[in-house]
Fold this sequence. Notes:
Helix content is 31%, strand content 30%. The chain is an alpha/beta fold. The protein has two domains: 3-223, Rossmann fold (3-Layer(aba) Sandwich), CATH 3.40.50.300; 225-287, no CATH class. The radius of gyration is 21 Å and the shape is globular.
Amino acid sequence: MRIDISGLTKTYRGGVAALDGLDLAVPTGMFGLLGANGAGKTTLMRILAGIVRPSAGRVVVGGHDLGTAAGRTAVQRGLGYLPQDLSVYPDLTARQFLDYVALLKGMDDRAARRRRIGELLEVVALTGQADRRLRGFSGGMRQRVGIAQALLADPQLLIVDEPTAGLDPEERIRFRTLLTQFSGRRTVLLSTHIVDDIAQTCREVAVLAKGRLTFRGTVDELTRRAEGRVWSMVTDGPPPTEGTVVSALPHEDGMRYRIVASAAPGPQARPVEPSLEDGYLAVTARVA
């Protein structure tokens, strides 16, 4: 399900612009949306989900114009959405919660509903925990319930907003693997500020900063944006003041710094191969 966005603007009360003339095309498959907190990612996700109306611009999802009531209804019928903060009922079990959400989605056939819930509980590896109350679930388990509820109606568009924030490394890897399994025949839009989530799941990515598109291309192309701009420097003096310090590690001769800068940040600096994180910093530094 292709997404075409043109001139998308959202200005909140007080003149705060969350999106500023955004143009973006998203193809079928796994697509990453990368940006710092406050970059406009969640606003864009909420517009695509039909929860928020834009101030200006046009969004077409699978040929349906979100500017029309009919278009929004058509898109929402084929949409799965996992928001940044999914509200669950702690006294319900996972099975009861999914049954409740399925009813809200219009899945009235009880046998079909139970069958679908059973399938999804198995997919997200929660069959053995299905009758436990959600209050006892870990953050990762709740996110897996969240992805199950988003997939109940077998959507063609799956939107997940900051899904791995707060998860431990094992749960993060498990969740990323789940997402890639679902992306074969549908569009999965992964919005995150965690660069590694994009590196491990997506081939194509867009970068937002202050509501504007600063990059659109492949993960490899984003990495190459930092070529000739990444430096390693060991010093026992003060940290470098030029560029952006990516990391600082103890070294026998002081500290080893990794820096993204347009020129060598010091006489001891040596160029090194860029990473995806370096590329992300390189394209966002201009609008920081």
